[in-house]
Amino acid sequence: MHAFINVHTHNMADKNALVNFYEDFEHSGTVPYCSLGIHPGYPDKASYAQLEASAGRRNVLAVGECGLDKLCATDWSLQETIFRQQIELANRLDKPLIIHCVRAYSECLHLLTTAKVPVIFHGFNRNLRIAQLLLDQGFYLSVGAAVFNPAFGAVFAALPVEQLFFETDDRSDLEIGAVYKRAAELKKIGVESLILQVEHNFQKVFNHAR
């Protein structure tokens, strides 16, 4: 069986995973693959200069998580400034963006018009209307624990597998294999078929043969 790809986790022990760092960027060299970004909720954890100095490493496959969050205390103009900087950095490095978005989809979409790289919205758990807005832009959706929410089941079933990824985020109690299994059940396809599709998506987005 092929491996379960976990496109967003904060657990450094996860295998076949992109480990996300939003602080201590110097530790990012200790994992095979990772993403680096300044989280909108924690702009004081790392500076843009630190990010810029570290994001070019070969094991850093993406910039993020970055984005906009209307529920965090960070000043809105600061959030927008930091997000713009990271979009520009991703463009310059030709690395995908992993987006954190909370109640700010229209604002994120507006700023992402300047993105020239693939975009993944992580932790997606919203309705089909919002999903379609993102999918129509060619963006990808990464889904985690939401697959176990009955209210999200019908939305997930309608999402195209060609634009999907899966994740565990910061849930240490959540196994990525369980996410794939439930997702395959909702899609009414085999787990192995889903794994192969996500591998294809990964290679397309990250241009990185596993």
Characterization of the model:
This protein has 210 residues and is of the alpha/beta class. It has a single domain (6-206), classed as Metal-dependent hydrolases (TIM Barrel, Alpha-Beta Barrel), CATH 3.20.20.140. It is 35% helix and 18% strand. The protein has 7 helices and 8 strands. It has helices at 48-54, 76-93, 105-111, 128-136, 153-157, 176-187, 191-206; strands at 6-9, 17-21, 34-36, 60-69, 97-102, 119-121, 140-143, 164-166. Strands 1-2-3-4-5-6-7-8 form an 8-stranded parallel β-sheet, sandwiched between helices. The two termini are 14 Å apart.
Main attributes?
210 residues; alpha/beta; TIM Barrel; eight-stranded parallel sheet; 7 helices; 35% helix; 18% strand
Strand order of the largest sheet: 1-2-3-4-5-6-7-8
Number of strands: 8
How many alpha or pi helices?
A: 7
Alpha-carbon Rg, integer? 16 Å
Shape: globular
Count of the domains: 1
Query: Which consecutive residue ranges, at least 5 long each, have pLDDT under 50?
Result: none
List the secondary-structure elements in sequence, H or E.
EEEHEHEHEHEHEHH
What amount of the residues lies in strands? 15-25%
- Sheet with the most strands, sense and barrel status: 8 strands, parallel
Global mean pLDDT: 94
Task: Return the CATH architecture.
Answer: Alpha-Beta Barrel
By helix and strand content, what is the structural category? alpha/beta
* Helix percentage: 25-40%
CATH superfamily: Metal-dependent hydrolases
The CATH topology annotation reads as: TIM Barrel
Distance between the termini: 14 Å
- CATH class placement: Alpha Beta
